């Protein structure tokens, strides 16, 4: 069975979630293109989620996203629809594509819908027992040549494959959030993986125009292997800073240092919130269990989750409150766990902390500005040269952070999680949108 | 007809900002002013320069596709909104794709020549940011022949038409030379626009303009021979000015020192249903310019400043040839030699042109006339060029579609 044949019937589990919905858009677009080529064939994309209510929102999301896809590929679509005399203007062509994509969607809550699928994307909750239960059910339901691609970002694939008895038909296919935009897919191929599945996943990656980075089957893989430890480093620094600056003060300082001084797309605590404080905790738990590493734990995270401070995103992508409180996706307050309330980032409070952090080193440019700058490499080098010399709290924290991030990355290679330093850098630059990889000459 | 049967003056020019991507205050998701705002601002900007608006006899408005961009027809009805004195006076909307503004000028001049009015307020407007560019491409595609070429056409219909022209020029005159000249045209356009606070590219901060302009084309998402820097942007805006007879000028109380004289104009039409006879030539534009020269008894050697329709950088090069500044096939060399720069032989598009200033399609012809008026009367501020007293004439070319509807006009400072 080739890629095109497999794409005739596909299911996405957890389709209404943030990862599942993105995967659904990517696959629906490709299936719709196949349908234009083969109008007589039957194509089905089953969008399965336990929550009936959110499926309506999913359809609205898919419509908006497929429209965007069509708007960006109108040059191609005009040639694909060349035979359709009734479709003349771009608007008509884009609408036709959205309609064609929609006509193959089958949303529902019944797992049984996946029965005839040749490919199943699993993007349900990051809980190995639930994942194992659902995959077992599907294994009994689907034919024995169905491939399973799991979006897990931490659970070892070989372990899951064995537990569910998929005999090599499971591969880790870890998209980054949001899958429609992020170029990276971390591919975790367990030693047990079926050869045809490996070929299929490579070909699919090309079709989806994704950058596939291989990671070994060790819990957390590259992405979370770095992110969890990077987050724990920031939390550790906050613990040190809180004596002098209070806990919210420390959170503010580290968030700002990681965003501005390190020129990252967002501060570390905003990123943890974006992913979800509860998800962060859950991944730590999985990694701690599978790696037997007791340092993968945070009391602060546990306390926040206890207080139901979860972070995460709303269906429209806007951020929910976690470590920080957001208005229009900008932090406006910091959570004070002792008081159980948010402390507004007021001018005086902020100015006081900013003065302690100190000025940004010479040559600083915001992340967004450098993103499209053809000379960003040179500009980053000269900025980090100045950061080395700067005598401020912010610069000191940034240097320690850079060094720790590099150490984490190198350990990922030495412990066999990543095959090379380049792969670690590729994950951070493509999946986390960093301008530079953690293994660099800046420190 | 040779010389114009009487003197027609042009006064009181006004341009709004050319609004769209590139302007700092532009955000695609934020609400923006509509058609009414621009018509009103430009109209008031012009009538504010005369002593008594009641003495304006009628209005002409050039617009291309408000019916689709803004779902609005019946544009003459906007004149009384500009000022109540227009209530019950004649008003007309004219359309000829991107030459709609040029046709508004010509229609106004003809009305005065026909002794039907002494003063005409002439406006050109387009508000295009109401739709994404991929849908805007459909609307602008209306300047081509819908039944004959749209279905086979490209997603970005007009960019691709001019991309084909660029490709033909590459083949005929040498790719490197033409490509370099196109990029230099872009550099010139942006540098000029940076001096003009109303230009869409006023805030352009690209460090290496030439390198940006040399970005290789990506036919998968855009065109085969041109990149986005070769294109004028999607713009919202309006321009206005007033035409007046000698008597009209007196009635409006405007001094001749603030006026230009319409030396001549030329109009020419190509066949919309046929492809251009030669992709390396703007033959309809050339015809309109030659008509204007003939009527005035002038030649390209008399022109000291010019406004050409550079909807794309390649149209800039071809216009330089159509205007007679360079021989056929030598436009690229002419531009490469810097002869269209503000301080050179024939300063062309000194306020940015369509690539730099912006291109609110149906209003651009009027905008060009306003800028020419300002240049010739010394009011072009930071964009002011020196005009050789031996060549005191300004030429403009307003082109619609793929060189189909063209109006050219020659102005000089009123004596």
Question: What are the segments of chain B in which pLDDT stays under 50 over at least 5 consecutive residues?
Answer: none
Q: So, the CATH homologous superfamily of the largest domain in chain A? A: NAD(P)-binding Rossmann-like Domain
Q: Could you tell me the radius of gyration of chain A in angstroms?
A: 23 Å
Gross CATH architecture of the domain at 8-132 and 235-257 in chain B: 3-Layer(aba) Sandwich
Largest sheet of chain B: 9 strands, mixed
The spatial strand order of the largest sheet of chain A comes to 3-2-1-4-5-6-7-8
In the CATH scheme, the class of the largest domain in chain A would be Alpha Beta
Q: Which class best fits the helix and strand makeup of chain B? A: alpha/beta
Q: Name the largest protein-protein interface in this structure.
A: A-B, 16 and 19 residues
Structural class of chain A: alpha/beta
Distance between the termini of chain B: 23 Å
Shape of chain A: globular
* Number of helical regions of chain B: 15
Q: Note the quaternary state here.
A: heterodimer
CATH topology of the domain at 8-132 and 235-257 in chain B: Peroxisomal Thiolase, Chain A, domain 1
- Work out the radius of gyration of chain B: 20 Å
> Helical amount among residues of chain A, as a percent range?
40-55%
H and E string of chain A: HEHEHHHEEHEHEEHEHHHHHEEEHHHHH
The biggest beta sheet of chain A is recorded as: 8 strands, mixed
General description of the model:
The complex is a heterodimer of chains A (443) and B (415). Chain A is an alpha/beta fold. Chain A folds into two domains: 3-215, NAD(P)-binding Rossmann-like Domain (Rossmann fold); 223-431, Orthogonal Bundle (N-(1-d-carboxylethyl)-l-norvaline Dehydrogenase, domain 2), CATH 1.10.1040. Chain A has helices at residues 3-6, 18-37, 52-72, 74-80, 90-103, 128-141, 157-164, 195-207, 223-245, 247-261, 268-275, 277-291, 299-306, 347-357, 367-371, 376-389, 393-414, 421-431, and strands spanning 9-13, 44-48, 105-108, 119-122, 147-150, 170-175, 184-188, 211-215, 324-327, 330-336, 341-344. In chain A, the strands form two sheets. In chain A, strands 3-2-1-4-5-6-7-8 form an eight-stranded mixed sheet, sandwiched between helices. In chain A, strands 9-10-11 form a three-stranded antiparallel sheet. The longest helix of chain A is centred in the middle third of the chain and has 23 residues, at 223-245. Chain A starts with a helix and ends in a 12-residue tail after the last helix. In chain B, helix 4 (100-113) packs across helix 15. Chain B has helices at 35-47, 66-69, 79-82, 100-113, 133-140, 146-150, 157-173, 175-193, 209-213, 246-252, 283-296, 313-322, 331-336, 353-356, 364-376; strands at 8-15, 58-62, 91-94, 119-127, 236-245, 260-269, 303-307, 393-400, 405-413. Helix content of chain B is 34%, strand content 16%. The longest helix of chain B has 19 residues, at 175-193. Chain B has a domain at 8-132 and 235-257: Peroxisomal Thiolase, Chain A, domain 1, CATH 3.40.47. Chain B has a nine-stranded mixed sheet with strand order 3-2-4-5-1-6-9-8-7, sandwiched between helices. Chain B has 415 residues and is an alpha/beta fold. The interface between A and B is medium-sized, with 16 and 19 residues.
